[in-house]
Structure to design on (377 residues):
C-alpha cells in the first residue's frame, strides 16, 4: 500500500467548508444573544443576497472587488510576503482610472478608452507597490509595515488631490466631477436591456468578467510560467531559490508590482463601473477584506472566486439583516470577523481532524482493495 497524500479537494474544498460551518454556528450564537432566531436571520440574509435580481447584483458587485483585492494578497503570499497595502494600491489605482476618464471621456471611443483605463489602473497600483517592494528587496524593510504606512499615505494624498485639484469649483463635496457618460463601464441591467431583457438595476457591471479572467490569468501565471515558478520557489524556500540562481530582489519587486496592479483593478469596478467619479473612502475597507478572502480561498485563484462570493453574500446579506432587524451596521463586520477567525487564525482546528479522517478512510479502502485483488506471487 502506497503512502497516502491529502488531495487538493480536501484542502481547498472540505476544510474551508468545515470552517465556514463552525463560523455559522458561532454567528448563530451571536444572533441568539441579540434575540434573533438564527434560522430567520439566515433566511433573511439569503433572501437579501440571492432572492432578487437587485440583491444578486449587489452580491456579485461586491464579489468583483473582493476578487481583485484578494488576488493582490495571494500573489504576494506565494512569494512569502504579506501585502497589507491593497487598500492604498486600490486607492491610487482609482486615481489612475479617474484621470483617464476625466481626461479622455467623451473624446475617444469607449473601446479605446477602456484598455487605457485598465492599463492606468494596473500601472498606478503597481507603482504604489513599487516603493515598499524596493525597500523590502534592497533595504530589508518589512513589507507589512511599509504597505500599512503607504495605505495612510495614499488616503492623505487622495484627500489633498481631491480638495485642491480634482474637486470642481463651487462644490462642497470632496469628490471629482462626474465622468462623461461615454467612459462608464456598462452595467449589467443596461447590457440586458440592450437585448430586450429586463433585470433589476444594480451596480453590477461588465468588470465582473474582467475579474474572472484575471483570476484565471493569475492561475496561469503562478502555475504555468517560469516567473510564477520563481515566485513560488522564493515563497517556499528563499535559501534554496537563491542557491538555484533566482534573484530574490528581482522576484520580490516583480511580485509586488503584480500585486499592486491586481489591487488597482478594483477601481474599474468601483470607480468606472459604479461611482463614475473619484470619491473619498471609495475603497471602503475592501482592501483589508481582501486579506480575509485570500485566507479563506487558501491563496488559490479558484478558491478566491468562491470566497469572494461568500463575502459578497455576507456584505449584501448583512445589509438586509440591518434593514429587517434594525441591528447595528457593524454586524457585517462581526460576521466577516467570525469567518476570518475560523478560516485564518483557527484554520488548523479542523484541518488535522479532517485530514486524519480522510487518511483513515483511504487506508481502509486500500486494504479492502488489496484483500479483493491480492498481489500475484
Amino acid at each position: 500500500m502506497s503512502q497516502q497524500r491529502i488531495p487538493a479537494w480536501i484542502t481547498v474544498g472540505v476544510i474551508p467548508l468545515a470552517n465556514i460551518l463552525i463560523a455559522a454556528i458561532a454567528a448563530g450564537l451571536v444572533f441568539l444573544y441579540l434575540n434573533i432566531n438564527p434560522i430567520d436571520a439566515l433566511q433573511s440574509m439569503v433572501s437579501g443576497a440571492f432572492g432578487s435580481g437587485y440583491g444578486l447584483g449587489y452580491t456579485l458587485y461586491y464579489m468583483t472587488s473582493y476578487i481583485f483585492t484578494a488576488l493582490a494578497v495571494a500573489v504576494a503570499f506565494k512569494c512569502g510576503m504579506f501585502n497589507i497595502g491593497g487598500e492604498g494600491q486600490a486607492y491610487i489605482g482609482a486615481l489612475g482610472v479617474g484621470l483617464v476618464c476625466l481626461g479622455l471621456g467623451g473624446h475617444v471611443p469607449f473601446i479605446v478608452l477602456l484598455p487605457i483605463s485598465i492599463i492606468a489602473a494596473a500601472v498606478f497600483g503597481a507603482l504604489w507597490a513599487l516603493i515598499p517592494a524596493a525597500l523590502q528587496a534592497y533595504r530589508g524593510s518589512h513589507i507589512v509595515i511599509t504597505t500599512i504606512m503607504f495605505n495612510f499615505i495614499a488616503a492623505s494624498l487622495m484627500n489633498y488631490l481631491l480638495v485642491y485639484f480634482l474637486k470642481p469649483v463651487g462644490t462642497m463635496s470632496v469628490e471629482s466631477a462626474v465622468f462623461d457618460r461615454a467612459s462608464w463601464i456598462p452595467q449589467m441591467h443596461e447590457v440586458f436591456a440592450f437585448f430586450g431583457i429586463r433585470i433589476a438595476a444594480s451596480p453590477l457591471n461588465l468588470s465582473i468578467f474582467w475579474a474572472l479572467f484575471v483570476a484565471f490569468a493569475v492561475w496561469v501565471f503562478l502555475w504555468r510560467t517560469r516567473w510564477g515558478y520563481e515566485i513560488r520557489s522564493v515563497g517556499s524556500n528563499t535559501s534554496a531559490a537563491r542557491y538555484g540562481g533566482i534573484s530574490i530582489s528581482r522576484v520580490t519587486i516583480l511580485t509586488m508590482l503584480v500585486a499592486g496592479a491586481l489591487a488597482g483593478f478594483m477601481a474599474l469596478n468601483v470607480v468606472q463601473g459604479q461611482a463614475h467619479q473619484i470619491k473619498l473612502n471609495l475603497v471602503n475597507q475592501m482592501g483589508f477584506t481582501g486579506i480575509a478572502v485570500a485566507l479563506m480561498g487558501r491563496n488559490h485563484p479558484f478558491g478566491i472566486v468562491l470566497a469572494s462570493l461568500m463575502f459578497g453574500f455576507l456584505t449584501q446579506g448583512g445589509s438586509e439583516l440591518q434593514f429587517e432587524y434594525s441591528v447595528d451596521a457593524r454586524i457585517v463586520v462581526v460576521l466577516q470577523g467570525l469567518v476570518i477567525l475560523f478560516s485564518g487564525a483557527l484554520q488548523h482546528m479542523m484541518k488535522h481532524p479532517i485530514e486524519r479522517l480522510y487518511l483513515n478512510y483511504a487506508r481502509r479502502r486500500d486494504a479492502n482493495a488489496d484483500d479483493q485483488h491480492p498481489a500475484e506471487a
